[in-house]
Amino acid sequence: MFSRRRAPLNTADTRLVTARDTRVPSAIMRQMSKTEWWSFASEGTRTGKLAVVRPDGSPHVTPIWFVLACGAGGADEFVFNTGATSVKGRSLLADPRVSMAVDDQRPPYSYVHFTGEARISEDLEEMLHWATVIGGRYMGAEQAEAFGKRNAVPGEYLVRVRITNVVAHADLAD
After folding, report:
1. E-strand spans in the chain?
2. What confidence tens digit (pLDDT) does each residue in 94-110 have?
3. Is-above-0.85 flag for pTM?
4. Which of 2, 64, 66, 120 sits most deeply, having the most CB atoms within 10 A of its CB?
5. Are 135 and 148 a contacting pair, CB within 8 Å?
6. Where are the transmembrane segments (predicted)?
7. Alpha-carbon distance 154 to 128, whole Å?
8. Coil, helix or strand for 45?
9. Dist. CA 91–CA 118, nearest whole Å
10. What angle do CA 36, 41, 45 make, to 5 degrees?
11. CATH code for the domain in which residue 74 is found
12. Domain count, the chain
């Protein structure tokens, strides 16, 4: 397997130097603060690209609609709905570990990557609340209630992911 090992950043000339890679990083790339990544991930109708581990061990990535929330004990979470019989639903029952990327595909390019552990709820009242919030974000206030009612039914899951790690960078390219 090909492995790309990087030497430490040489701050004198801001180049990453390796035996096989001599890329020059953006002079403006920077790490986002929590306030910045929260705002970035919550902006408009950006979708998340959620990765789960299927029961057979293979990866599965799919776009999702989500919202960020402050969970129990002040823990940061992202929340979404999925069908109980979907690949996501079945996979999360077998293995609650997830990763999600949210990115801006326009220059100067930015992204946030979340890692966490999912908790599944079938509580219809809780599901209605969050499905309505998610519907409002992605479909607008006028359709939020209908979206919530459509998704808060038996056979659907409310998934709350407690975020355990965040990597967030802004302005990757000039």
Report:
1. 30-31, 48-53, 59-64, 67-70, 76-83, 97-104, 110-121, 156-170
2. 999 999 999 999 999 99
3. no
4. 66
5. yes
6. none
7. 11
8. coil
9. 11
10. 135
11. 2.30.110.10
12. 1
Q: Domain residues for 119?
A: 30-170
Q: At 146, is the secondary structure helix, strand, or coil?
A: helix
DSSP state of 10: B
As given in the structure block, the two tokens for residue 69 are: 């929330």
Query: What single-letter amino acid sits at 117?
Result: E
Which two structure tokens, joined as six digits, stand for 126? 């809780």
CA distances in angstroms from 67 to 47, 77, 159, listed in the order given: 10, 8, 11
Q: How many CB atoms lie within 10 A of CB 99?
A: 18
| CA–CA separation, 129 and 92 (whole Å) | 21
Q: What amino acid is encoded at 91 in this protein?
A: S
Q: Which residues pair with 48 in a beta bridge?
A: 64
Q: Is residue 7 part of a domain?
A: no
Could you tell me which residue, 4 or 116, shows the higher pLDDT? 116
Q: What is the pLDDT of residues 26-39, one digit of tens each?
A: 568 899 999 999 99
Is residue 151 situated within a structural domain? Answer: yes
Please report whether residue 120 resides in a domain. yes
**Which residues make Cβ contacts (< 8 Å) with residue 12, sequence separation at least 6?**
none
